[in-house]
């Protein structure tokens, strides 16, 4: 499973393209997601939806279909 990295599209402190440095912390891939908002996008009520959507795509792609 890749490391999921989220960035605010209008963040002047952490431009989405600059977040590729997260690759150094994993031997797997990183998956960069850009969402509406600035530096404090994480306080948005829609963050859980973005994370859930990204995770569901990976779980359903597992060989077992993500079931237990």
Fraction of residues in helix? 10-25%
How many angstroms does the end-to-end distance come to?
17 Å
Low-confidence stretches: none
Major sheet strand order: 1-2
Order of helices and strands: EEH
Largest sheet: 2 strands, parallel
Indicate the overall shape. flat
Radius of gyration, in Å, reads: 13 Å
Helix tally equals 1
Strand residue content: 15-25%
Number of strands: 2
Structural class: alpha+beta
Average pLDDT level: 82
Describe the protein's architecture and organization.
- The two termini are 17 Å apart.
- The protein is an alpha+beta fold and 68 residues long.
- Helix content is 19%, strand content 18%.
- The model has no long low-confidence stretch (mean pLDDT 82).
Write the layout of secondary structure elements.
Elements: E1 3-8, E2 30-35, H1 47-59
Parallel strand pairs: 1-2
Jot down its keywords.
68 residues; alpha+beta
State the gist of this model.
The protein has 68 residues and is α+β, with helices and mostly antiparallel strands. It has 1 helix and 2 strands, in the order ββα.
């Amino acid at each position: 499973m890749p490391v999921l990295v989220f960035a605010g599209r209008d963040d002047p402190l952490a431009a989405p393209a600059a977040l590729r440095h997260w690759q150094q912390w994993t031997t797997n891939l990183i998956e960069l997601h850009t969402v509406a908002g600035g530096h404090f996008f994480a306080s948005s009520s829609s963050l859980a939806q973005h994370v859930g959507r990204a995770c569901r795509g990976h779980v359903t792609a597992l060989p077992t279909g993500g079931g237990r």
